[in-house]
UniProtKB/TrEMBL annotation:
GO terms for molecular function: kinase activity; protein-N(PI)-phosphohistidine-sugar phosphotransferase activity; protein-phosphocysteine-trehalose phosphotransferase system transporter activity. This is PTS glucose transporter subunit IIB. One of its GO terms (biological process) is phosphoenolpyruvate-dependent sugar phosphotransferase system. Pfam families: PTS_EIIB (PF00367), PTS_EIIC (PF02378). It comes from the Bacteria. It is found in: Cell membrane. InterPro entries: Glu_permease_IIB, PTrfase_EIIB_Cys, PTS_EIIC, PTS_EIIC_1, PTS_IIB_1, PTS_Sugar-Specific_Components.
Amino acid sequence: MRTLDHAACARAIFESIGGGENLVSAAHCATRLRLVVADAPKVDQKRLESLPGVMGVFCAGGQLQIILGTGTVNRVYEEFIKLSGLPGAPAAQKCTAPVLPLPQRLVKTLGDVFVPILPAIVAAGLLTGILDALGRALPAVAAADWFSFLKMVSGTAFVSLPVLVALSSARVFGGNLFLGGVVGLCMVHPTLLNAWSVGTAENVPVWHLLCFNVKQVGYQGHVIPVIIAVWLMSRLERWFRSRVPAALDLFVTPLCTVLITTFVTFTILGPCFSFAENCMIGLARQLSTVGHGIGALVMGALYPVTVVCGLHHMYNVIEAGLLSAGSLNIWMPIASAANFAQCGACLAVAFKTRDPKNKTVAIPSALSAALGITEPAIFGVNLRYVRPFVCAMVGGAVGAWFGTVTGIGATAYGVTGLPGFLIVGGYILPYAELLALSGGVAFAATWLFWQDVPAQDKTPG
C-alpha cells in the first residue's frame, strides 16, 4: 500500500477549491478538513472526491468538509495551512457560527466544550475498566497499595469533572481560563456537602443570602450548571473590561466577575439547571429502558441521523451526567451498536463493489467505524448510496435493543466499537454479542439490498 503524500494531497485540495482567493478559513476535526469558501460553485467537487486519500466530500453548516480519516487529516491540514497562510481553526469557527441555526449552535458549543476534555475522561474510564476487571479476576489485588493508588488516579477526572468543564467552557466562551477554573472549584469546594452524600446526610446546612436559602451542596455529577455559570462569567468579564478604567481593571474586573457569578450560580442558575439536567438524565434512562428496550431500539436507529445533523455531541452531557452520578454509562451500548453497524454496512460495500476507488475508501472507513469514528463510513460511503446507511440504521437498532435488555453499561464515554471492550467491565461477552449482532445485521442487509453500479453511473441504490 502506497504512503500518501500529504503535501501533494494538500496542494491538490487547495487547487480544487479555487486557490487562496476562494478560501475564507480552514479548520479540522478528528477526521475532516473543514473549509469555508467564498464561492461554492468554484469548487471542483468531482476532482476532490477522486483525489488519493480523500474518502468523501460534503457540505454542512456552511462548511466544505473533506473526509481524510484520523491521523491523515492532521498532517494534510498542516500542509494546507502552509499553502494558504491562514491562521486556521479560530477563524473558521468565527466565520461559520452565524450561519448555524440556534439549536445547532447550542449543540456545537457542547461539542466544543467536551471534545478537548475527552482524553482525560477516556484515560480515566479505561483505567477504571481495567481495575474493575483485575479486581474481579484477582480479588487479592484489590487490597494492594498500587491498586488503591490507581483507583485514586482513575477517579480524579470524574470527581473533578466540573473543574475540567469550567476550564474548557471558559476557553469556548472567551473568558479567562483561571477565573473559569475558580468558578468550577467553587462548585465542588471541600466545605460544601458532596452531592453524592446528600441522600445519607442527617441534615443539609443552609446559607441565608438576602432572600435566598442556599443549600451548601456541591455540584459533583453536574455539567450543565457549570457551563451556564462560566458563560455568565465570560459575559460579565467582557462587560467589566469594556467599562472599567485600565488602571483599576486588574482589581475590579476579576473580583466583581467572580463574586457576581458565584452568587447568581448558587442562588439561581445552579438549582434551576441542576433540576433541568436531572430531568434530562432521567429521560435518557427512561428512553433506554422503556418498553423492554423499544426506546433503545429507536435511539439506535436514529443515532447516525444525529451524527449527520451534527447533534451527537449532546450525548456527552448525558453520558458525563450518568458517570458523575456514580452509575454506569448505559448510553454507550446504544452508540456502540450504531457505530459498529456503520462498520458492517461499509464493509459490505467494500466486499461487493467492483470499483477499486470505492474499495480503497470503504475498507479503511469500515476499520475507522469499528474503532468508533464513523464519519468516513457515513459520509464517504454509506450515506452516498443511501441503502447501506438505512441498513446500518436497522443494525444499530437491533444492537441497541440487545444492549439494553442485557443491561450492558460502561465506565467511561467517548469510547465505542472495539476499544469499548476496555470499559464494559463484566459485560465483555454480551458486548461482543452486541457488536456481532449490530455489525452482522447491517452487513447482511446491505449485501442483500444494495446493488453496485458501474463507475460511470453512480446513483444511490
